[in-house]
Amino acid sequence: MSTHSVQRVGLVAKPSLGAAAGVVAELAGWLEARNVRAVFDIETAQLAGVPRDRPTFSRDDIPGECDLIVVLGGDGTLIGMAGRVAHSGADIPILGVNFGSLGFLTEITLPELYGSLETVLDGTAQIDARLMLQSKTIRGGYTYLERLALNDVVITKGALSRIVDLAVSIGSQPVMRVRADGLIVASPTGSTAYNLAAGGPIVHPAVDALLLTPIAPHMLTNRPIVIPGNAEVRVQPGAGSADDEIFVTFDGQSGHSLQATDVVVIQRAARPVKLVRAATRTYFDVLREKLKWSER
């Protein structure tokens, strides 16, 4: 990425994160002193007290109005923005800044913000391409709903339901029958999210793979499996599921109920999302700091 390619930077803060207000205003001044325009979404402009006559955009529209997005908040804020960038088709990176403890995705700390931005502006930033998931719910032979997710697509039982019975196939090949509280289909980025809590493996984000992890399986032979990244995963409620409450959720941020004859088709999205990496630490450093990974 060359310097001249970054002329507009979108600033997106976690809603109601008062601690970010001053940082947003200071950051806007820092950018504009370098002839880079700061672009605000509506909520962030209100948070930072941006003058009302300055143009602002919705969070859905802001990816089309900038060359880089700086997210100030936590992993949830970044995940929501990654979905919007992916849906827009914009080929722009996201720089995530964490307020508080280091995040898996928002791995740049506040003291590292300006140094990291300098590397983006001068074209020396390390930028990871992270696999996105595309999920389609097929109902009656037609696409009922389509969503993109960075971390995972989760099929799970309702609060008062029994265990769910799910038939899983890769393309036309039957893979397994899952009797469990649900099933996680995760990307490598999502391997350290719900997948990890459910006993799934940690997978380096550069690996081209998908992960299938049953949630609290009722059969000891239902174990997590890592499959090729180009696989098409099809998940369908099993026979006898007509009376069960079953839901599909996307990155834990949206979802819908499933009918007994629905099929959820999950595969690698056509385009990855780009994340700016912290220059001061590796992925394994993040694992050690967040999980105490490999430490006694």
Describe how the helices and strands are arranged.
Layout: E1 8-13, H1 21-32, E2 37-41, H2 42-48, E3 56-57, E4 68-73, H3 75-88, E5 93-98, E6 108-109, H4 113-121, E7 127-130, E8 133-139, E9 142-149, E10 152-157, E11 164-170, E12 173-180, E13 182-186, H5 194-197, E14 209-215, E15 225-228, E16 233-237, E17 246-250, E18 254-257, E19 263-268, E20 273-276, H6 283-291
What do these coordinates show?
The protein is of the alpha/beta class and 296 residues long. The protein is built from 6 helices and 20 strands. The protein has helices spanning 21-32, 42-48, 75-88, 113-121, 194-197, 283-291, and strands at residues 8-13, 37-41, 56-57, 68-73, 93-98, 108-109, 127-130, 133-139, 142-149, 152-157, 164-170, 173-180, 182-186, 209-215, 225-228, 233-237, 246-250, 254-257, 263-268, 273-276. Strands 1, 2, 3, 4, 5, 6, 7 and 20 form an 8-stranded mixed β-sheet that branches.
Report the radius of gyration as a whole number of Å. Answer: 20 Å
CATH superfamily of the largest domain: Probable inorganic polyphosphate/atp-NAD kinase, domain 1
CATH topology of the largest domain: Rossmann fold
Q: How large a portion of the residues is in β-strands, by DSSP E?
A: 35-45%
Instruction: Please report the total strand number as a whole number.
Output: 20
Structural class: alpha/beta
Mind telling me the CATH class of the largest domain? Alpha Beta
Low-confidence stretches: none
Main beta-sheet annotation: 8 strands, mixed
Count of spatially separate domains? 2
Helix content range of the residues, please?
Answer: 10-25%
**What order do the helices and strands follow?**
EHEHEEHEEHEEEEEEEHEEEEEEEH
- Please give the count of helices: 6
CATH architectural designation of the largest domain: 3-Layer(aba) Sandwich
The average pLDDT score comes to 89
Distance between the termini: 40 Å
Shape: elongated
